[in-house]
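PROTOCOL LOG
Step 1. Enter all chains and additional molecules of the complex.
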Amino acid sequence: MDYCPHTSDDIAQMQSLIGISTLDELFADIPEQFRIKQIPDVPGALSEMETLSVLNGLAGKNNLTRLTLTGAGAYHHYIPAVVGHLIGRAEFYTAYTPYQAEISQGILQSIYEYQTMIARLTGTEIANASMYDGASAMAEAAVLCAKMSDRKKIIVARSVHPEYRKVLKTYSWANGYVVVESDYAPSGQIDMNELQRELDDQVAAVIIQSPNFFGVLEDVAPAAEVAHQKGAMLIAGFTDGTSLGVLKPAGASGADFVVGEGQSFGNPLNYGGPYLGIFAAREKFMRRIPGRLVGATVDKKGRRGFVLTLQTREQHIRREKATSNICSNEALCALAAGIYLAALGKNLKRLAELNIDKGQYLKNKLLELSGWKEVFSAPVYNEFVLRCPDARKVNEKLKQAGIIGGYDLQRDYPELENALLFCATEMISREDIDKVAAILR
Amino acid sequence: MELIFEISKPGRAAADIPASDVPTVNLENIIGSQYLREELELPEVAEIDLVRHYTNLSRRNFGVDLGFYPLGSCTMKYNPKINENTAALPGFTGLHPYAGAEFIQGNLQLMAEMQKYLSNIFGMAEFTLQPAAGAHGELTGVMMIKKYFEKKGQKRHMILIPDAAHGTNPASSALCGFEVRELKSNSEGGVDIEHLESLMTEDVAALMLTNPNTLGLFERNIEKVAAIVHGKGGLLYGDGANANAFLGKARPGDLGFDVIQLNLHKTFSTPHGGGGPGSGPVGVGQALVDFLPVPRVVKRDNQYAWSEDFPDSIGRVRAFYGNFSVIVKAYTYIRSLGAEGLKRATEMAVLNANYIKERLKTYFDLPYDRICMHECVFSGKKQVAESGVHTTDIAKCLIDYGYHPPTIYFPLIVPEAMMIEPTETESRETLDTFCDAMIAIAKEVRKNPEGVKNAPVTTPVSRLDEVLAARRPDVCWKES
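Step 2. Run joint prediction.
Step 3. Record the structure below.
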């Protein structure tokens, strides 16, 4: 299939206006020895029907499972039908970044509304238009803290998502910062004694996540307090965004930045992306944060309108002195998140409660199995860690039944042998859970 | 238009929650009141209000499906609908990123093939699909350059960047701790070779070059440029933002580029959704393969799998594996067009840009009058001198004619710049009516400059007060 509408007559006439007789003349600036006639080893064109068949074939090689007991940073939630219909409007879908405000009021206002919802949800005053994902949002927050404080050390809780810690290390290495990991206590929360020992006046930021990677809720306020005592910032992440329907947001407990993955809000699993990084902060950092910000203003007639604002933070104005290099973000995913949150409204609380109910039911069912024990003592949202007699065997059995089992924590925590991280969302029925328990009995 | 918060009414909701089929727990007991929030301030609207709100918002927005969008450097080509259908196949959308290898062979095969196709199209040894956008790809590429020299035990602290480059180039370099030196353009709009020779020392890690550059001009001296950089042990980085100009015509790997980042949402036609998601794959030559981010797709015993076993890797730049569904769309595009179709797309894109350039050059100042590639850059300085009308006024006036304006005031080296990129998917009729509109505006500028300065008049809002927005930032709505 070819999407160029020119007829051969069009081409001939256009060539004549330009004053060339062959298309090759347009490429005369490419030194001759480098010109190629054909791209090697890329297959030939397909009709639309054939293309669909090839892609159907690839999708068919995946084994789709209805039941996933793993969350670990990506959560299977129901997406109301309105979300897909509304983000699919071509006016949103096929637009570039809203550089021309007068014909971009739709996306600009939707971002302003998204920023407001995210600030309220996270207990902060401001939020940007989105980052790439939860991990890069966290890393950029850390880099920003180091830059602002001129300190080179970043402390991250070991209970933060392992891949987020890896991304943090990559960004920190590139900037010449040091990352120190702080261990967890038997409760599954950050070990406050160890944190206090590691905190010194070289620390730019302390990073925790609540719920953390183990599903455990952290005590954000004391962590913020000890960090602030040493002049460090507190960056608080979260795992499943729906938890904010019931949980006290980190912004209300003294966090300076709240960052995390927004996928839970109306975005499908999509094998890991595209997702959206939520980036929220205290108002005093407004002129320092990375990413786009939409602000309200007025037009010549005094009517309310929206523009990209404080752009002097950004790369296209400030170049090497910009607060970040980010340009494209995840606007459409943020639009989905905004529509999702507006659709649920106060029902986000009921959804979160349902997730807790399901998590508790799954946990209790699994704890009835012989030899299964809880690993951590602190409260959890919809994820939890259990130790079982043989984690591999458990996941193998579930796999045979087409179920993705728990996340095997030994991958990232050698000391957590036979410990599985399970997740239950509203997508899992009591029947499913009973079936899982029966398979493992 | 009202905000979603302003149409909110307590007691409404547009999404319901199923009743619980498991015992309901007491939150105070299970979680503890100290962890619970007091308020949840989200809009409360009925489904019909929600649908009308966002549908009406969408009507205040412009996309490629509505009309011509010649936004230079952004390659706003038509996005084929089949790409949406394939990316939405449940076999792709429903998979959890931690599903085991047995569940995801189709995804891994698609990603492995995509990497191979990109390597062949661009003449690179290997690609990573992990970065989420072009600037993220740049950052990844510069990190690999940093690691390369670290591994060699060389301390190189500088990166050279032409004055015409995108702002992300210096910003990405700075994020990796490099000092940026600006390289001058010559009178033809290319690299000033003498200036390059004087700057290129053994302190310089790389030259970041966009080719064709942001003037839409191909670097004729590319072989010499590469030789100068490589001669001092440096690396040549390619910003692939303008890759639509040379598919099937030349390959950056053959031209001497060691690293190149792409923007799938530009060259490979994935819709940009009002500012993302994009996807920014990075290709490298053999010397840099070991530094690619992990995990990488590997094939063992006829099975695909992820591997992190690459000790020299820069590590991860994001969680999971990349913007997968964007990659599916770009893969679909490559398979639909095939090798021949990609080449034709480039030929038509370049033909269209030159056609516009020829049709408009008597009306607008053309700072570099030579064959251009996929885009052409005019200057509005003639209009400023004649009537005091600026490029921004011309852009706003185009809106009233039903077009998205070109990129304006970029590249920075052209005063009052207008960067027009028509892409290959536009018909001659569209190009002609656009050129007619530009010519009509050029005439209007002389006859009625005040009218042009007043544009747009057809939009829901007129020009907005950006100074006010920055001076008294209101980025989060508060109930008054």
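Step 4. Note key features.
The domain at 81-344 of chain A is CATH 3.40.640.10 (Aspartate Aminotransferase; domain 2).
The CA atoms of residues 201 and 230 of chain A lie 6 Å apart.
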